[in-house]
Amino acid sequence: MEWNVYLSGEIHTDWREQIMAGCKEKGLNIHFTSAVTDHEASDAAGDLLGDETSGFWRDHKSAKVNAIRTQNQIAKCDIAVIRFGDQYKQWNAAFDAGQCAALGKPYITLHGEGIVHPLKEVDAAAMAWATGADQVVEILAYVVNR
Fold it and tell me: Residue 96 is part of a domain; what is its CATH number?
């Protein structure tokens, strides 16, 4: 069986590449999907619908266009990995975690100990909390190979 793993969250580090490389190294049969990680492209997704003079409406339209992709990928995934970085607040990642919880999709949170308290509800619904990409790879290897 090929597993479909959705990678959500922080876009400023290479955590996705680390997980994908680690899973490839272990020979895991996993297909990875992700939200758009090009920040400028994501912000401009709604521009196809016409120019906006208000930043709110530009962001609003872009969020909806991006949600077409995100909601579809979450619905199709077997498990999600949701990364919260230390530098920026990833409200979109928290929203993705809520969608996973509502759909009964298992997810793993990935974040440092410094933000345990603000993520307590998100972590409470997660199947696991990892502090590093290596831990995520080990969890996926266990799940896929057992």
Answer: 3.40.50.2300
